[in-house]
Design a protein that fits this description.
Blueprint (H helix, E strand, L loop, with lengths): L1 H50 L6 H6 L2 H26 L1 H27 L7 H20 L11 H14 L9 H15 L16 H19 L5 H9 L2 H11 L11 H5 L2 H22 L2 H9 L2 H24 L7 H15 L4 H4 L3 H12 L2 H14 L6 H4 L6 H26 L1
Length: 438
């Protein structure tokens, strides 16, 4: 019965995809026809003007100069070549209609049976739930394709969103109680649709209104992370493939946008420092990064994956560095920071390893764009300048490589304007420390 439901969901997504494909092609055909007609009209009018003994219409030439006509003619040549194919398409529209349906169905069936063979295995205790998981993955694949062209909140994705929610609500009922797999479903289908390309929800426009959808997305992100990290998995393959391998990306997206939990990310730094829930989560994530590395060391699958894709390990390093910075800022705000604290020593060692070690995961990323992007998130920020240059080097007197110090070069005045409260607290702490030593 549950297999039948899964097949019906896949069939529904196939019909929706075929409908979109047919609309796209036929609309494209009409557009081709319209452009070809427009080109012919323009050239026809131009020919009449050239043969006219009277002075050419100035208004016409102001709109279609000879240069514009040459460019337009060059571009429209491609449309002329496609004209016969477009006419054939309309002539055999029913063949195209059923051909598209057959092709998309064939691809979907292939994907569905491959996923089913991988995830609905004999040893699985919750096969009923997996039938929905496989169907949900097929539906989700269409959504991941569409978000390359439109925002996840676009109305075009609404039918797929409806199917995805329906599959989730039916499927999670058959998962084992307190199983971490529910967190995987939540992340893959409702968080990753935004995190995959670092989208924010459309109500996040910095308009002064609370972005409720963005706040909810961050809550869903934490729900999926907490499920994966705190509850056991009855299936080791699911744990390794969709939790251990993906958790750095899950933590990264949450770390970047967690301050939406206090309403907005703009100017939220100080509000976030006073939010005990957020600060407790920052410490929890920092502790989880070490736990994740321990789990990685015991998984042959992850070891192989890290060799092929060092970005996974580099992302986890970045996540830990961001959490350590948050902890240090919180300690300063609470007036309990001291230079021998284990967190700042840990931060210094991790920073040096990431930036200076040629064998670090960050250095091993082959894609230069990805490597620069991660590096910028770690190093080219005001927070990096404050912690690396001022806190580590100037305030605590740690030896910091000149390579790190040269990355950012803000003036003391600029640094103070951004972090005057923290710097005043540190000066006060240093004065109290000097008096106690006397």
């Amino acid at each position: 019965m549950h297999t039948l439901y899964g097949v019906l969901f896949v069939a529904a997504s196939t019909l929706i995809a075929c409908f979109y494909l047919i609309c796209l092609v036929f609309c494209g055909g009409f557009l081709f026809q319209a452009l070809v007609w427009l080109k012919n009209e323009v050239l026809s009018n131009n020919s009449i003007l050239q043969n006219d003994t009277e002075k050419p219409d100035e208004e016409f030439y102001s709109f279609f100069s000879s240069f514009e006509l040459r460019v337009y003619t060059f571009v429209s040549t491609g449309f002329n070549r496609s004209k016969q194919y477009i006419l054939k398409l309309f002539e055999y529209k029913w063949v195209f209609l059923f051909g598209s349906l057959f092709l998309v169905s064939l691809i979907n069936a292939n994907v569905y049976f491959q996923l089913r063979g991988k995830w609905v295995r004999d040893e699985i205790t919750h096969k009923d739930a997996r039938e929905y998981f496989v169907a949900g993955q097929v539906v989700n694949s269409f959504r991941l394709i569409l978000i390359r062209f439109v925002h996840p909140d676009h109305i075009l994705l609404s039918p797929f969103h409806y199917l995805q929610h329906h599959i989730y609500n039916r499927g999670v009922q058959y998962l084992p109680e307190k199983d971490g797999e529910e967190g995987v479903w939540m992340d893959l289908w409702f968080v990753n649709i935004y995190a995959h390309r670092f989208y924010l929800t459309q109500d996040e426009k910095n308009s002064g209104h609370l972005p409720y959808n963005m706040i909810r997305l961050i809550d869903l992100s934490w729900f999926s992370i907490e499920k994966c990290m705190t509850q056991p998995f009855s299936d080791k393959t699911m744990f390794e493939v969709h939790c251990l391998r993906r958790i750095p990306r899950m933590l990264f997206y949450y770390s970047l946008y967690k301050n939406y939990s206090v309403g907005t990310i703009y100017g939220s730094h100080r509000y976030a420092l006073s939010d005990e829930v957020l600060n407790r989560r920052v410490r929890q994530i920092e502790a989880w990064t070490d736990q994740i590395r321990d789990e990685w060391s015991g998984s042959d699958y992850i070891k192989t994956n890290l060799i092929k894709n060092p970005k996974v390990a580099a992302t986890l390093d970045v996540v830990q560095l961001l959490q350590l910075r948050g902890i240090l800022f919180k300690q300063i705000r609470d007036g309990v920071f001291h230079c021998s604290d284990p967190y700042i020593v840990k931060y210094k060692n991790l920073l040096s390893n990431m930036v200076l070690d040629t064998e670090s995961s960050l250095s091993k990323i082959k894609n230069a764009t990805q490597r620069r992007r991660l590096f910028s998130l770690v190093m080219k920020t005001h927070a990096s300048e404050f912690v690396d240059d001022y806190l580590l080097h100037d305030y605590c007197g740690y030896s910091v490589s000149q390579t790190i110090l040269n990355i950012n070069d803000e003036s003391y005045k600029k640094l103070y304007s951004n972090y005057y409260e923290e710097m005043d607290i540190l000066k006060k702490l240093k004065g109290e420390s000097s008096q106690s030593q006397e």
